[in-house]
Amino acid sequence: MFCSNCGHKLNEGEAFCPNCGQKKEDSTNLGSSNQSTVNGSGVVNSKAGTTNTMAILSLVFSVLGLLIAGLPLGIISVCFGATALNHLKSFPEEKGKGLAIAGIALGAFDIIAVVIQLLVLA
Ligand SMILES: [Zn+2]
Questions:
Q1: For every residue of the chain, which 3-state class applies, written as one string?
Q2: Quick one: which of 102, 101, 108, 115 has its CA closest to 73?
Q3: pLDDT over threshold 80, residue 2
Q4: 40 C-alpha to center of ligand 1: Å?
Q5: How far is the CA of 13 from the centre of ligand 1 (A)?
């Protein structure tokens, strides 16, 4: 990292800039104080209210699986949906639980549909 005051290159262990004496922690506080004008805990809660991307992808792939390649896209959407649900357990303020469940259900349907097709064709 570099000193925020003078731009001098800082080593990991150094608490102060050897060039100008700027304290390392002060430089990070300066950086976050700019963001805290928007929201005190803006960094932590920045994703609150946003819809989980994996949940959206899960539903998109499962719908595509109905139209194109059911087996691979079905598996992908179930994996994405499970990942999204797992993530949403840790970040309950994010949205997309319903999308993830729908993605898993549709993805499973994609897989079952392909299996039924294979059985019928066989
Ligand atoms: Zn410095």
A1: CECCCCCCECCCCCCECCCCCCEHHHHHHHHHHHHHCCCCCCCCCCCCCCECHHHHHHHHHHHHHHHCCHHHHHHHHHHHHHHHHHHHHHCCCCECHHHHHHHHHHHHHHHHHHHHHHHHHC
A2: 108
A3: yes
A4: 27
A5: 15
What is the CA(24)–ligand 1 centre distance, in A?
Answer: 9
Domain ranges of the chain: 1-46, 53-121
Which residues have C-beta under 5 Å from ligand 1, the single-atom ion? 3, 5-6, 8, 17, 19-20, 22
Tens digits of residue pLDDT in 96-111: 999 999 999 999 999 9
Tokens of 76: 């992908």
Q: What angle do CA 73, 64, 62 make, to 5 degrees?
A: 55
* Token pair of 32 as six digits: 């976050």
Q: What is the largest CA-CA distance in the chain?
A: 78
